[in-house]
Design goal:
Length: about 170
């Protein structure tokens, strides 16, 4: 692919990805406010943006088979744990931005679990086997992620596990 076309597609992939995420979150907010049809509209358009993102990503060569996708996912989570979030968290701390420090710390703690989950999964998928997976619970406050029955309180943010979203 020509370089400028590639750069443009890469920018478009980033833009569509962000739009998808924003619309999903806007949908949550609309539902909380009682606008269930607006919520559904945001959700449908979010899906369309995901289709655009996937088309761009495919052309950019970003999508492989699951075993490779898991490896890339481990690498991405590792970068966040080892470099990105420690630096972001300390930047926020240095600047006295307490809310940003907490937000970065919530992500840092969850990424450690994600990294392990992906790395473990990759072992089975490398042998062509699907993984064994109990129900997965996610804290809606901090993103703490847990397989199987969760503890009563979130170990990262102390939220009640009754609020956890089940997958
Ligand atoms: Fe789009
Ligand atoms: Fe993550
Ligand atoms: Fe939490």
């Amino acid at each position: 692919m020509k370089e400028m076309t590639k750069r443009a597609l890469s920018d478009a992939f980033a833009g569509e990805s962000m739009a998808h995420m924003k619309y999903i979150i806007y949908s949550d907010i609309a539902r909380e406010e009682g606008y269930s049809n607006v919520a559904r509209l945001f959700e449908a358009i979010a899906y369309a943006e995901r289709v655009h993102a996937r088309n761009h990503a495919r052309l950019l060569g970003l999508l492989g088979k699951t075993v490779g996708n898991l490896r890339k996912s481990v690498d991405g989570e590792s970068f966040e744990i080892e470099e990105m979030y420690p630096v972001y968290k300390n930047t926020a701390s240095l600047q006295g931005e307490k809310a940003a420090e907490i937000s970065n710390n919530y992500a840092l703690e969850a990424e450690k679990i994600h990294q392990t989950m992906y790395a473990e999964s990759k072992k089975d998928v490398a042998k062509g086997k699907d993984i064994k997976l109990a129900e997965v619970y996610v804290c809606p406050v901090c993103g703490y992620t847990h397989e199987g029955n969760p503890p009563d309180k979130c170990p990262v943010c102390n939220a009640s596990s009754k609020t956890f979203k089940k997958f």
